Amino acid sequence: MPSFIHEDFLLHGKTARRLYHEFAEGEPILDFHSHLPAADIANDRHFRDLTEIWLQGDHYKWRLMRANGVAERYCTGDGPSFVKFEAFAKTVPASLRNPLYHWTHLELNRYFGIDELLNERNAKAIWDKANSLLATADLSTRKILSKFGVRVVCTTDDPCDDLTHHQLVNASEKGLRIYSTFRPDKALRVDEPETFNAWVERLEQASDTSIRSVANFLDALKSRHDAFHAVGARMSDHGLPYCYAMPCGERETANIFDKVRAGKPASADEHEQFAAYLMLFFGRLDAEKGWTKQLHLGALRSVNSRRVAELGTDTGFDCIGDWPQARPLCAYLDLLEREDALPKMILYNVNPADDYVFASAAGSFNDGVTAGKIQYGSAWWFLDQKDGIERQLDALSNTGLLSRFAGMVTDSRSFMSFPRHEYFRRVLSNFLGSEMECGELPNDVQLVGGMVKDICFANPEQFLGMQMPPQGSGKESCHSESL
Q: Where are the domains of the chain?
């Protein structure tokens, strides 16, 4: 019986296979949005066992395990490592048609050379084999990045975060760069005075600024934006339910700031106005420095309040939100455009109903100077699977230029997630190859293959304008063999 993960996995035709193997497979990776800890890369972390590298922090897996009746102790709790892995192994056969079924077996194959379908019966044998490989020097964090041809990783960082680890890696690694991404979401939390004020105290320390007024606050934020730029950052990011686009004036902003600093929460209207004011401020900073702004819009977070109170945020209790997106998104982009302060942007959508909204909005703010200036970003979160990827590609190509697309990201906290780039590249190749074979695209492999190759690496490299490490030999082959 042939392996489930074989060399032509997801490639349903000879043209799809040519596109992938000749144009996509060997391209390096520029992973410009992740949640990887920079400290783990700087320290070249080694993982104790398969649970530590594969299950810790992975709310995708926790959601499925809970749905399969697995107790919380074996998801986020203090259960023994092997018992947690065994509980996941029991869940995998129940996950047919969930993208985790594909990802699980891609990752087992690409990291450990394991071709078996994971289940309860073979869990111990797979555990033992994977752990024996994790005990070697070949699966440290830096070796993993090298193995998968990762040339650039962008982490997601609070303005108060220390950037020392990024500098250490960039000074010591020849073929790799890691850059911070400026994510100031907590600067908007004036509806939560306790959270906001504690964060402002951290910002004071990080910026070496005494914050007594909103002017001081903005100066401190700009100081940290400058510090990020100085160590190579060229991107910002915001996780918002929708864009805030009804700013108040300077005096009203100052009044809201003073009110919250005194311990009183901003009202719903004041929160929106203050957030809109700051989002314009952040947009101007990005435009001045030539940065790219990322907007992750539409997630409804922490919906299960009892479980979030027990376990904290980012533990798997979020869902797709259904806010109207078109009007506030376009209003925000328009406010910056009026000032000639609209930076390059990548817009990520989590609601499939809004695919064409986002794609068409992006196309309304290109400037005829920067190719693909406003991007409809890759399928995100609940949509970063085969169907969601194809829907994103459809919406983008039907309303704009797929040829200018900046490509895929892992958006992951796990060093086991780099095969998601391979997964995307296979879906992309099959998507286009199928249309070539039925005559909807020209039967010109060099023409279409050139676009595939660009989407994989050249487009994000050119669009983001980051300093690249010296060109290496490219991605090593990791198919059907262990590291």
A: 29-35+157-464, 46-137
